[in-house]
Task: structure prediction
Amino acid sequence: MPHKKLKIKQDVLGKMVKPKTTGGFVVTPDQINNPLFYEGTVIRCFCVGCGYSTELSDGGAKKLAKIATVKHPINWNSYYFETKGCIVCSGAYQDPVLKKI
Ligand SMILES: [Zn+2]
Result:
């Protein structure tokens, strides 16, 4: 049911209050070890700016890897991105770094 899922996603994002980019957030194991929630996503991105964890599609992950100037791994499992700003707090992912879980 892709439509229902999209609706839920929109509802969640629509009600979300934009967090402030304060920085200094530290990723917790829970935020990167849990299975990905959204269908079609391959990797998590943790933002140290606002503390939010988002999920990226393969295309999005490859874009971030390009910005981070790292060769993307064959399998995104056991990796996550860390950024200084994200689509939630800054409208775009900033200074992504690919890290091993
Ligand atoms: Zn953020």
In short: The pocket of zinc ion is lined by residues 21, 47, 49-50, 52, 85-86, 88-90 (CB under 6 Å). The longest strand covers residues 41-47.
